[in-house]
């Protein structure tokens, strides 16, 4: 398929990036490049409903469209599912898009790209697709990228057929004043000013370092550095934060509940964030908050913090990166000692002085 695209007749672009939160953050840098190159073009974004708050009121997005494929998969035979699906397709068609770009590479995203009715449908080369069969929904593609390339650069490469070849990377997040006020009040209640966030959760069980090790690390930071520790948590993760707190010798602060804009506002205030390969890590990079990443089954060269000043600690084992969601053996994360992470934390903080 011919990679070059004649943009002279392209007036409306649809970005298809449904999930996950961290992957959407990795796609944000395409927005300023598209708007800078084609200021008059209308840009729409199709996203999962649960991630909509990250993109709501974004100045570079003219229309934000949502789908709820998670609910559709849970209730595939429900009449309401079919009604919602047809309504979503009608809304897509109403956009009259000239070009749709599938940054997801899944069958569901490819199908939605096709159903948008856009005559030009651009996506990754077959070898770069997470589900290669999704290529049947495309009629333009980019040649496969090297495996070691970071996913941000891979996404930017998808703009080359549009005549955009730039290494300038910005993460244009939307900051909410209401969220800022909420976080200010929450931190005031906890009496926190200068603090380090530990976010122990993660979408995959295999990405989570143990509660015992996080507790040991947190105690080291409090005792040897004097920083306050704030344990943050997402949906279904508060018990994990409580378990870490119960294992610590010094009492940490446990965060108040946050939605996506509030989490961004909170991370922006932190001195440092420590976590695995998860959405908060990539939000921190986008905010400019220093990061120490604890990596196991995923490849930091591909999915690590994009800021070269940030540090990832990992144990190189023959089976990593495996990208398995669950691994009973955990030879990678299990071999990382709290003392080693503490040394990396100290090194990252020294880089700020």
Write up this protein.
The protein is an alpha/beta fold. The protein has helices spanning 21-27, 30-37, 52-55, 69-74, 79-94, 107-115, 151-157, 177-190, 211-225, 238-247, 260-269, 279-287, 300-303, 338-350; strands at residues 12-16, 42-48, 63-67, 99-102, 120-123, 140-141, 195-199, 228-231, 253-254, 272-275, 291-295, 311-314. The strands form 2 sheets. Strands 3-2-1-4-5-6 form a 6-stranded parallel sheet, with helices on both faces. Strand 8, helix 10 and strand 9 (253-254) form a beta-alpha-beta unit. The radius of gyration is 21 Å and the shape is globular. The relative contact order is 0.12. The model has no long low-confidence stretch (mean pLDDT 92).
Q: How many domains?
A: 2
Could you name the CATH class of the largest domain?
A: Alpha Beta
Mean pLDDT: 92
Low-confidence stretches: none
Principal-axes shape call: globular
Q: What is the alpha-carbon Rg in Å?
A: 21 Å
Question: In summary, what is this structure?
Answer:
This protein is of the alpha/beta class and 353 residues long. It has two domains: 7-162, Rossmann fold, CATH 3.40.50.2000; 177-350, Rossmann fold (3-Layer(aba) Sandwich).
Q: Helices, strands, pairings?
A:
Layout: E1 12-16, H1 21-27, H2 30-37, E2 42-48, H3 52-55, E3 63-67, H4 69-74, H5 79-94, E4 99-102, H6 107-115, E5 120-123, E6 140-141, H7 151-157, H8 177-190, E7 195-199, H9 211-225, E8 228-231, H10 238-247, E9 253-254, H11 260-269, E10 272-275, H12 279-287, E11 291-295, H13 300-303, E12 311-314, H14 338-350
Parallel strand pairs: 1-2, 1-4, 2-3, 4-5, 5-6, 7-8, 7-10, 8-9, 10-11, 11-12
Helix pairs in contact: 1-12, 8-11, 9-10, 9-14, 11-12
């Amino acid at each position: 398929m011919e990679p070059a695209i004649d943009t002279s007749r392209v007036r409306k672009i649809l970005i298809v990036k449904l999930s996950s939160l961290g992957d959407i953050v990795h796609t944000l840098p395409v927005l300023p490049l598209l708007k800078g190159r084609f200021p008059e073009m209308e840009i729409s974004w199709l996203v999962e409903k649960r991630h909509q708050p990250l993109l709501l009121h974004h100045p570079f997005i003219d229309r934000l469209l949502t789908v709820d494929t998670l609910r559709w998969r849970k209730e595939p035979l429900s009449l309401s599912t079919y009604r919602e699906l047809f309504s979503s397709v009608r809304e897509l068609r109403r956009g009259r898009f000239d070009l749709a770009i599938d940054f997801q590479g899944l069958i569901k995203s490819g199908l939605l790209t096709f159903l948008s009715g856009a005559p030009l449908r651009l996506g990754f080369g077959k070898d770069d697709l997470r589900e290669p069969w999704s290529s049947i929904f495309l009629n333009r593609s980019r040649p496969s990228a090297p495996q070691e390339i970071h996913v941000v650069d891979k996404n930017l490469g998808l703009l080359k057929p549009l005549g955009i070849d730039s290494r300038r990377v910005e993460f244009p997040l939307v900051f909410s004043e209401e969220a800022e006020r909420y976080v200010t009040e929450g931190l005031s209640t906890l009496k926190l000013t200068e603090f380090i966030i530990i976010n122990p959760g993660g979408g995959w069980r295999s990405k989570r370092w143990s509660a015992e090790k996080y507790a040991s690390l947190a105690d080291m930071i409090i005792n040897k550095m004097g920083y306050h520790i704030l344990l943050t948590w997402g949906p279904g993760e508060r018990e994990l934060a409580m378990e870490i707190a119960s294992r610590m010798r010094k009492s940490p602060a446990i965060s108040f509940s946050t939605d996506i804009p509030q989490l961004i506002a909170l991370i922006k205030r932190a001195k440092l964030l420590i976590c695995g390969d998860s959405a908060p890590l990539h939000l921190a990079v986008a905010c400019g908050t220093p990061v120490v990443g604890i990596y196991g089954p995923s490849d930091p060269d591909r999915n690590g913090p994009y800021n070269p000043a940030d540090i990832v600690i990992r144990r190189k084992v023959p089976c990593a990166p495996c990208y398995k969601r669950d691994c009973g053996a955990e030879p990678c994360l299990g071999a990382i000692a709290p003392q080693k992470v503490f040394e990396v934390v100290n090194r990252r903080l020294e880089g700020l002085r």
